[in-house]
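Exercise 7. Given the encoded structure of a 301-residue chain, write a plausible sequence.
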């Protein structure tokens, strides 16, 4: 078998030059000198026998051949990283760190209880927890390799285990005018009031999933923000039932009496971002989440 003349590092440098838009920007991102980056790309082109980049203004752009090779090289480097991570998992067994991406609609009490049960069994595994909304979990999978993504959206090609059924409930503060209605509230009446909507945290392909097609809405970045605003008598919102227990029990919030659609349920899944390379710590956490959600009153499987 003939040994490759071009190294993975050369392809990585080329990718960075293209992604960052130039040699100076790539040098900064790679913590290398600009001359080193320029030499690496020049050597790559020399070895291949034709140019991959052209300079347009201050930016480096790919040639037609360069575009083809860059697409293939991205896949090559991704596979190399996956291979190293698999070797690390097989060699060490227990992951030194878990990267977990959680949709904010996931029941907070169940998540906290599972993490509390996980800590004494974690063997020192560090946890990196990131909260997202809607398609933010998909974007995290696209951009990196999180160990677990807790989301209602399972992308094609990923392994996932069902965890819990989440109920979203339409609520407003006890003193809100909607609670003065004597008959069940229809969409036409509801649309005349201010609605709080949670913004999709994805940057590239956000989803607009406002429950009503009304222009009278405020958009916030988190479920907690929506809960606090609604609790203070401003607007109404659909919020996770698991996070409303205290507010409903003390009477600060009340469930709206709607003609239909007052509650909406969907399943949350644990998506294994590393597939077959998922280690024992991630699998243990999923087992603990499933155990907690089996005890959760919102579980209805």
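Solution.
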């Amino acid at each position: 078998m003939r040994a490759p003349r071009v190294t993975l590092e050369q392809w990585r440098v080329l990718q960075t030059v293209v992604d960052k838009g130039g040699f100076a920007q790539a040098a900064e991102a790679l913590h290398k000198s600009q001359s080193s980056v320029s030499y690496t790309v020049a050597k790559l082109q020399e070895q291949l026998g034709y140019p991959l980049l052209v300079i347009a203004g201050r930016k480096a752009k790919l040639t037609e051949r360069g575009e083809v090779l860059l697409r293939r090289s991205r896949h090559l480097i991704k596979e190399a990283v996956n291979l190293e991570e698999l070797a690390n998992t097989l060699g060490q067994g227990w992951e030194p760190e878990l990267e977990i991406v959680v949709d904010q609609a996931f029941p907070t009490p169940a998540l906290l209880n599972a993490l509390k049960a996980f800590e004494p069994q974690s063997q020192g595994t560090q946890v990196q927890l990131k909260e997202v909304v809607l398609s933010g979990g998909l974007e995290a999978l696209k951009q990196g390799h999180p160990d677990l993504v807790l989301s209602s959206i399972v992308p094609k090609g990923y392994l996932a285990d069902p965890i819990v059924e989440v109920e979203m409930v339409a609520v407003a503060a006890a003193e809100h005018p909607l609670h003065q209605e004597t008959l069940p509230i229809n969409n036409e009446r509801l649309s005349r009031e201010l609605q709080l909507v949670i913004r999709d945290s994805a940057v590239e392909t956000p989803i607009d999933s406002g429950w009503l097609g009304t222009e009278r809405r405020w958009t916030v970045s988190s479920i907690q923000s929506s809960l606090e605003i609604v609790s203070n008598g401003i607007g109404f919102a659909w919020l996770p039932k698991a996070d409303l227990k205290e507010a409903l029990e003390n009477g600060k919030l009340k469930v709206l009496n709607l003609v239909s659609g007052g509650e909406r349920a969907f399943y949350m899944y644990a998506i294994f971002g590393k597939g077959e390379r998922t280690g024992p710590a991630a699998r243990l956490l999923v087992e603990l989440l499933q155990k907690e959600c089996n005890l959760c009153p919102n579980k209805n499987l």
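Remark. The mean pLDDT is 88. Students should compare their own answers with the one above.
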